[in-house]
Write a structure and sequence with these properties.
single chain; 22 helices; 2 domains; 66% helix; 461 residues
Length: 461
């Protein structure tokens, strides 16, 4: 039985690698100048989904390995080395159906030249040749022709917080407008994540081999290294906070502020993280003040961006795409209120905050062992209720998968690649198949499995 489980683990790693290699091979077919009808989008989506399903099947395999007391050091090294190799596989690849990286490279170049990326949108720069304040940015644009034209939502200034912008700027200082330099920084960040994850799993009484659910996860690998989404900068801060909260609450505050500097939402996790320090009110208050003040100072440049071109304001007020629950909830709210969009967003924000406060102050299961699970619950509620259901958002929850090996969450990672067939469906005039059938499948089925898992967990006390 032990040899069988070991063989299944190694075979699973090989299958994931083969699927990712196939995605790497076909990535060139998605280059600029090609059309959707020429893209092997079904092969891409099927390969990513299949690889993610294999990753799901690693859950029972690792559980059996752990139950049988097998020595896992070699398997752990295999998962770490393979995880880093699979990420490196996508250096030089054409990003498939994603272009956010164009904004990253531009923002980094802007900061590297000493300018503020929150002040002017790309459209401001393209139309403001006679404005002396924009002259340095015009010069930068002339040095990199077409860089601005490739940015999506050019009417808006950047939406990315300062820590993420700092990484983009570091890449630009090494070599401007080079996507592989940015990928290299992401790769180094993931190496740090692996180290912290192993340490955190050990501290929380779990086998380090569970780290394989992160290191080998195909959705994380594709999103971070082919699509080059900056969300891979988030895990070191969150896992670092999980480690530090046991004994260093102020260091935890710094990690949480760092996470907010990548994506603002991790501030919602603060009440859950700090619940064990409620019995030490001086420390609790000091940490609260530290996080509040540093977060405000860090995010101030974003908050001061001009309202009519602010990416943050636009995202907060009207961004909506590929979500499952939000449009349905918005319809219900629309029955009772005229400004249903804003009210729905406020309602969702209130729900997430209340859940976080519940786990932070009122929950009866506040032991350290349950901390990752409760952080995962808050994150999943955010993902499911968000107005935007992008696949890379699911990677936020996958940070906690090694601590809480949930089949529902793993299934969500298997199904969200269906997002990438929407382009072809739109061009064929049958986009309603995506909104009416595929979105409910992507989110509805995992939600049912998560509910079943929660019920079973409740039954077991």
């Amino acid at each position: 039985m032990q040899k069988k489980d070991l063989g299944l683990f190694i075979f699973g790693v090989a299958l994931i690698g083969a699927a990712l290699f196939l995605i790497r091979l076909i990535a060139f077919d998605f280059r600029l100048g090609t059309t959707t009808e020429d893209h092997p989008y079904t092969v891409f989506a099927a390969a990513l989904m299949a690889a993610s399903f294999v990753a799901l099947l690693l859950i029972p395999v690792i559980r059996n390995i752990e139950r049988n007391g097998v020595h896992t050091t070699n398997l752990l090294w295999l998962s770490l080395i393979a995880g880093l190799a699979f990420r490196a596989l996508f250096f030089g690849s054409t990003p498939i159906y994603e272009d956010d990286w164009n904004r990253y490279l531009w923002d980094g170049a802007v900061v590297a030249t000493g300018e503020n990326p929150y002040t002017y949108s790309p459209d401001d720069i393209l139309s403001g040749a006679d404005n002396p304040e924009i002259l340095p940015l015009n010069t930068l644009s002339n040095q990199h022709p077409n860089a601005l034209n490739r940015i999506n939502n050019r009417q808006l200034s950047t939406i990315y917080p300062p820590v993420a912008i700092g990484v983009f700027a570091l890449a630009a200082r090494i070599e401007p407008m080079n996507l592989d330099i940015l990928r290299l920084l992401f790769w180094l960040t993931e190496a740090l994540t692996f180290f912290l994850l192993i340490k955190a799993l050990t501290l929380y009484g779990r086998s380090p081999l569970w780290a394989a659910l992160y290191t080998l996860n195909p959705l994380i690998i594709y999103s971070g290294f082919n699509a080059a989404h900056m969300d891979v900068l988030l895990p070191p801060f969150i896992i670092g906070a999980l480690i530090a909260i046991r004994a260093r609450p102020l260091l935890t505050g710094l990690a949480l502020v760092g996470a907010a500097g990548v994506k603002i939402w991790p501030l919602l996790l603060a009440p859950v993280l700090y619940r064990k320090w409620l019995k030490r009110p001086k420390i609790y208050i000091a940490a609260t003040v530290l996080i509040s003040v540093l977060s405000l100072l860090l995010l101030l440049p974003m908050l001061q961006a001009p309202g009519d071109t602010s990416g943050l304001q636009a995202y907060s007020n009207y961004w909506e795409r590929s979500s499952y629950i939000f449009p349905r909830l918005q319809k219900v709210v629309g029955i009772f209120a005229e400004n249903h969009g804003l009210i729905t967003r406020l309602l969702i924000a209130s729900v997430i905050i209340c859940v976080s406060l519940w786990f932070g102050f009122l929950s009866k299961s506040m032991s350290e062992k349950n901390l990752p699970k409760h952080l995962l619950i808050v994150t999943l509620i955010l993902i499911f209720l968000s107005p935007t259901g992008f696949p890379w958002y699911v990677t936020w929850a996958l940070i906690f998968l090694p601590f809480v090996p949930s089949y529902g969450l793993a299934l969500l990672a298997c199904l969200v690649p269906l997002y990438y067939v929407r382009y072809a469906l739109g061009e064929q005039g049958i986009y309603h198949i995506y909104t009416g059938w595929l979105i409910p499948l992507q989110f509805g089925l995992p939600l049912l499995v998560l509910a079943a898992e929660s019920f079973w967990s409740w039954r077991r006390g």
